[in-house]
Amino acid sequence: MDYIKLAKDNEDLCIEMRRELHKIPELELNLPKTVAFVKSKLDEFGIKYKEYVNGNGLSALIEGSLPGKCLAIRADMDGLPVTEETGLDFASTHPGKMHACGHDSHTAIALTAAKIINENKDKLKGSVKFIFQPGEEIPGGAKPMIEEGVLENPKVDFIVGMHGGHLADVPRGSIAFKENEMMAAMDKFTIEVNGKGGHGASPHAAVDPIIISAEILLGLQKIISREIAPVDSAVVSVCKIDGGFTQNIIPDKVNMMGTSRALDEDVRDIVEKRISEISDGIARTYGGSAKVNYQRFYPVLDNDPEFTNQIKSIVSKMIPEDVFEMRKPVMGGEDMAFYQKEVPGCFMFLSNLKEHSDGICYPNHSPRFNLDESLFYKGVATFVASAFEILQ
After folding, report:
1. Is the pLDDT of residue 168 over 80?
2. What angle do CA 179, 182, 184 make, to 5 degrees?
3. Is residue 154 reached through a cis peptide bond, with omega within 30 degrees of 0 on the bond before it?
4. Percentage of the residues of the chain whose pLDDT score is greater than 90
5. What gap in Å lies between CA 69 and CA 160, rounded to an integer?
6. Rounded mean pLDDT of 361-380?
7. What tens digit of pLDDT does each residue of 24-44 get?
8. What distances in angstroms separate CA 254 from CA 40, 199, 210, 287, one per listed residue?
9. Under a CB-based contact definition with an 8 Å cutoff, are residues 15 and 376 in contact?
């Protein structure tokens, strides 16, 4: 089979579906319009499906003419709480919401691959299960779908997934692979710093939670610079600080929020423990208190080496000039990691960022983020080829 030709023959459909999805971004675990669109296409293609997570996730099953193993192809469907600034004709119609991370393209690429595979299922051995999940951005949709049995009936033997966008060291148009750790564990923490409010002109009569918060922020950075081995990777970033009223009032309380990332579970344990200890210790030193809430979200995304090399070999036969091997993992997180803790998996990056009208390539999560639709066919071809070649 000519997988590239099949993908190119369906390119217009893929782009059309992506644009329709781009108009209707929805958040977290509540995706009624998106799911309705995906269902309508699966019905049109004649592919049966099941619902998960209160109807906000789907799995679609294509069974081949001969018995065999089951490959899962995963796509995420949710958007982000971002106000779009792309100026596209098909920009978001939902105020304050945007597909700023490419999940609209992931869904369209998977739907296109499903159509092609279903049209050629007489040549398929085994089965292909498409997983359309909500909530890849926090709070995460993979785990509840697994708990509801998405990897069973039939039991999934392997899983593949792909993320579009931009990575600085991946050439444009390439598909990037990496064995073992590819993306970091992703956690969230909040810190409530309590002091004693007062007048800004009389700080000695107050316990200033803003000053305490500043000391905590700086103290947390020393976890990375002085407590984690230089050869290990970890990140602690405070990304939100909220406190105070006006220029001359010391508030009673400050709230901080941040994220931590690690590529090793032992390092993850150290970071969690020390965020609490440092916050509490510094706050008490200055007469206040700190309450830390640390939430573990996604584990390390770990690509199975043998399976990843099989997928890479398949892609290399189609587009050898566009296969790229990553030397280092990235510190972003992905809840695809939950599936890969259960079955061997391969997650890939498609480097397909498109320049904005000002000539700048804006990254994932930017309000000006956009993708080069002319490269979607590579994702479609990769999924279709993986289905027919892996299951032989």
Report:
1. no
2. 150
3. yes
4. 98
5. 14
6. 97
7. 999 999 999 999 999 999 999
8. 47, 16, 6, 14
9. yes
Rounded to whole angstroms, how far apart are CA atoms 254 and 245? 11
The amino acid present at 24, given as its one-letter code, is I
pTM of the full structure: 0.94
pLDDT surpassing 80 at residue 371: yes
Number of Cβ atoms within 10 Å of the Cβ of 10: 22
Active-site positions?
78, 136
Q: Angle at CA 178, nearest 5°, toward 299 and 58? A: 55
CA atoms in the 13 A half-sphere facing the CB of 68: 22
State residue 340's pLDDT score: 98
Q: How far apart are CA 237 and CA 140, in angstroms?
A: 20
DSSP 286-313: TT-EEEEEEEEEE--EEE-HHHHHHHHH
Residue by residue, DSSP assigns 370-389 as -B-GGGHHHHHHHHHHHHHH
Look at strands 158-165 and 345-351 and give their pairing. parallel
